[in-house]
C-alpha cells in the first residue's frame, strides 16, 4: 500500500531526527512530523470562485539536556535542514532553565497497542466533481426562498494527513487520517434587515456527509429565521443554548480543569476535584477510541495512551485534563490529554429540542455567540448573543444585539436539562443545554 | 534595489531559481483568459521565549518557507502552494492553477525589478539584535522588577518573540517586488491574589523593529508595571451594570472598536459581493461629523505597517471616513479590478499557503477638539472603558461585540469604581453616528493586535483618541 510506504518513509525521517538529537548530546527527545494534502473548491452565485490545491508538511523537535528543554520546527524536510533544526533546538536548551518537571512521559504510560480507529477514508473527488457538488448545495440554498438574495457561496474541502510521532523512549508511530467537509453561507434580505448564516457538515468519511441539498436548505432556513431580529430589554431569564453552540460551555469547563490553568492557579475550578460542579444528573466523559469519529486517537500528542474515562459523574468532578508536564506540576499522573480532550461527551437527556423549548417556557434560545468574554480565572462570562425569544414553549421572534452574562461556576451548577439533539460534528458532543437563569443586556 | 537583491539571495539563490525560471512559470500561468497571476515566495524565521515561575521555561525556533502560485480569471481564482521551493514543484503548481482559465498558448513575460520607494522598517534580522544571553537577561530583569512591585503578585509570565520574514512577489506584468519584515513582541501577564480572590492583568507591545525596542525607554519594565496595575484594579472591580448607557472609550487600544465595528465592513471583498452592512454606501453619512477614520500602512515601525502589501502594491494612508462621510473601501488587486478602482495596498495573506484578501493595516480615528477630562466630566452616568480584551463582528448584520478588560463607572462626571466583565455590543453602521465628543489625545495601541479573517491571522494596529458614544449596550451581570 502506497500510503503505508509513505508513513514508513516519514517514520524514518522522525527516527533520523531523534538519532541526530542524541548525536548532538541530547539526553532525551521527542519529534513529530505531519504531511497534508488537500483540495478546496468554493463557488459563489453558481460559478467557481476558488480552486485551491493544498500540500504542506512540517516537522518539530523538542530536545532535553537533563531538565533543560529546547524546541525547533521547520517546513523543510531535507537532511541538511534536519541537522540545522536539531541544532537550533539544542542551542535553545543551553539557555533555558532547569525545570524539575520537564521531560518525556513515563514510559509505562505510552501507547503500545494501536487498534484501527477507522479515521482514514480518502475521497477520490476531482475539482470538477467538487465544484458540481458545491453548486448543488448553493443552488438548494438560493432557490429555497425569494428572500435569499445573495450568497457567500458554498465550499467543498477534502484533506488527507499523515502524522508521525516519536520519542527517545522508543515510541514511533504514524497514522493516516482524512477530513472532508461541505459548507454553505447565504444572505437574506427583508426591508432594511440583512442577515447571513451558514450550515456545514464534516466527517472523516465522505459517505457520512449530509446531502448537499440538505446543507444548502439548512443554511437558507437558518438565515431566513434571523430576519428582522430585535433587541430585548435588560432582564434576567432562563437561557437555552442550542446544540451547535452548547459545546462551547463544555469547552470552557474543560479549560477550567486543564492542567495548565490549574497549576497556574488561573481557573475558577481550583481544587474542585470530588466536589459538585454540575447538578447530579450530569455525566461527562471522553471517548477517544470511538470508531470513525473526528476526535479519535489512540494516543495523545506526547504518545501517552488515551482511555475512555469519566470526567464528571453524578455532577461531581472526578478527574482533571492533564499532560505530562502539568500532571507533574500538580503531583499527579498524565491523563493522556496533551493536546486536549477527545470526543468529549455529555450524556444526552430524554427531551428533544421541542421538549426543551417547552421546559424553557419563557426565555431566550441562543443560537449564536460572539466575542471572547469568558474569563477562565474568575468564571466571569459575558458574550454577545443572537437567537430567539420564546414564550410558552413557542418561538416568538428573532433576537440580536444583546449580551448574556453570568458566572460559569453558577451556570454549570444551574444546568436544568441536556437535550438528546446531539451535534456530532465536533470534538465535543452535546445536545442543547438549558441554564436556569442568566442576565440579558439590551436596549 | 537593495531589498530585492537581499530577498533573492535569501530565497531564490539557495533554490537555484533564476529570473528566467520565474518568467517561464509566469508565462505558463498566463493563458489567454487569465487576468492576473502571481507567484509569492516567503521565508520566515521566528523564535519565542517564555519565562514562567521565575525560570526560563521554554524556547523555540521555527523556519517556514514556501511558495504560492495564483491565477485569476474574472472572479475565479486557481491556487496551489508548496513548502518546497523547487522548479519542478513550481511548474506542477502552475499547471494545476492555470486550469482555472481556458487552455491556450503560454505568454512571453520579461521580469522587471520593482524599485522599493520607501521602507518603513529596518531590514536587519531582529532575532540577532540581541545575543541569546541578552534576551534571557532581559526576561529575567523584567521578571525580577515586576515581582518586586507588589506583595500580592503570585505569578508572572513573560513572553518574547521575534520574526524575520522575507517575501518576493512576481506579478503578471512582470514586476518582481520584495519586502523584508521584522516583527517583535513582548508580553507580561501577572496573577495577583488577595483574600482568596485571584485576578489577572496583562500588557504587551512591539512592532516592526528589533529587541532593543523593549530595552529602549525601559518598555519591558513598563509592560510589567502596567500589567500589575491592571491586575490590582481588577481585584477591586465589582459587577458591571447591564443596559444601554453612555460609554467613554479610552485612547489607544480601544480603537479595536473601529477595527470591528467599521473596519471589517469596509473591506473590498465584502462590498464587491454586497454582503457588508456598508455595501453601496460610499458618499453616505455613516458617522457623526466629528469622525475621520483612516487605514494607514505607512507609519514607521508599527505592527500593522507594510512597505508593500503581499501583492507588491505600496501601502497607503487611505481615508475610510471623512467628517462622517464614507469615502471608500480597502482593496486588494482582485476586488479593486472587479470594482473598477485601484488597489489601496491592503492585499494581505497569512502566508504563502493562503490566498490574499483585503485586510486592515493600522486603523485609527484622527484627533478631535475635546480635552479628555472634559469628556468624562460631561457624563452624568455611564461607563469608562479603558482597555479591551478583543472583539468580533458579523459584517452582514453589522452587529459587533467586544469585551472590556478594564472599565469604570462614571457618576456625576467623575470616574468612581472599577467594574468587571463588561461586554459592549452594538451595530457597526450606527455606533459612530452616536459619537458626540472626540478627544485631542490620539494614541495608537502598543503593538499587540492580530486580526483573524477566514482562518488567516495577520498583525494589525488600531488607535483612537478618547471618544464619547451616546448610548451603547453594556452587557454586565448587574441588572
Ligand atoms: Zn479583525
Keywords:
heterodimer, A: 443 residues, alpha+beta, six-stranded antiparallel sheet, five-stranded mixed barrel, 9 helices, B: 479 residues, seven-stranded mixed sheet, 11 helices, 22% helix, binds zinc ion
Write the layout of secondary structure elements.
The complex is a heterodimer of chains A (443) and B (479).
Chain A: H1 2-23, E1 28-44, E2 47-65, E3 68-74, H2 79-93, H3 127-142, E4 148-167, E5 172-190, E6 193-203, H4 212-224, E7 235-241, H5 243-256, H6 259-263, E8 284-286, E9 309-313, E10 316-317, H7 324-329, E11 344-346, H8 353-360, E12 363-370, E13 380-391, E14 394-407, H9 408-413, E15 415-418, E16 428-429, E17 433-441
Helix pairs in contact in A: 1-2, 3-4
Chain B: H1 2-15, H2 19-29, E1 36-52, E2 55-73, E3 76-82, H3 87-97, E4 112-113, H4 132-147, E5 153-171, E6 175-194, E7 197-207, H5 212-215, H6 219-236, E8 238-239, E9 243-249, H7 256-263, H8 268-272, E10 293-296, E11 317-322, E12 325-326, H9 333-339, E13 347-348, E14 357-358, E15 362-365, H10 372-377, E16 381-393, E17 399-411, E18 414-420, E19 423-427, H11 428-431, E20 435-438, E21 443-444, E22 449-453, E23 456-464, E24 467-475
Parallel strand pairs in B: 4-6, 8-18, 9-16, 15-23
Antiparallel strand pairs in B: 1-2, 1-5, 2-3, 5-6, 6-7, 9-24, 10-11, 10-15, 11-12, 13-14, 16-17, 17-18, 17-19, 19-24, 20-24, 21-23, 22-23
Helix pairs in contact in B: 2-3, 4-6
Bound molecules: zinc ion (ZN).
Compact summary:
The complex is a heterodimer of chains A (443) and B (479). Chain A is α+β, with helices and mostly antiparallel strands.
Describe this structure in words.
The complex is a heterodimer of chains A (443) and B (479). Chain A has 443 residues and is an alpha+beta fold. Helices cover 24% and strands 37% of the residues of chain A. Chain A contains 9 helices and 17 strands. Chain A has helices spanning 2-23, 79-93, 127-142, 212-224, 243-256, 259-263, 324-329, 353-360, 408-413; strands at 28-44, 47-65, 68-74, 148-167, 172-190, 193-203, 235-241, 284-286, 309-313, 316-317, 344-346, 363-370, 380-391, 394-407, 415-418, 428-429, 433-441. The longest helix of chain A has 22 residues, at 2-23. Chain B has helices at 2-15, 19-29, 87-97, 132-147, 212-215, 219-236, 256-263, 268-272, 333-339, 372-377, 428-431; strands at 36-52, 55-73, 76-82, 112-113, 153-171, 175-194, 197-207, 238-239, 243-249, 293-296, 317-322, 325-326, 347-348, 357-358, 362-365, 381-393, 399-411, 414-420, 423-427, 435-438, 443-444, 449-453, 456-464, 467-475. Chain B is globular and about 75 Å long. With 479 residues, chain B is α+β, with helices and mostly antiparallel strands. Helix content of chain B is 22%, strand content 40%. In chain B, strand 2 (55-73) and strand 3 form a beta hairpin. In chain B, the strands form 4 sheets. In chain B, strands 1, 2, 3, 4, 5, 6 and 7 form a 7-stranded mixed beta sheet that branches. In chain B, strands 10, 11, 12, 15, 21, 22 and 23 form a 7-stranded mixed beta sheet that branches. At the A-B interface, strand 2, strand 3, helix 2, strand 6 and strand 13 of A face strand 2, strand 3, helix 3, helix 4 and strand 5 of B. The complex binds zinc ion (ZN). Zinc ion is lined by residues 259, 264, 451 of chain B.
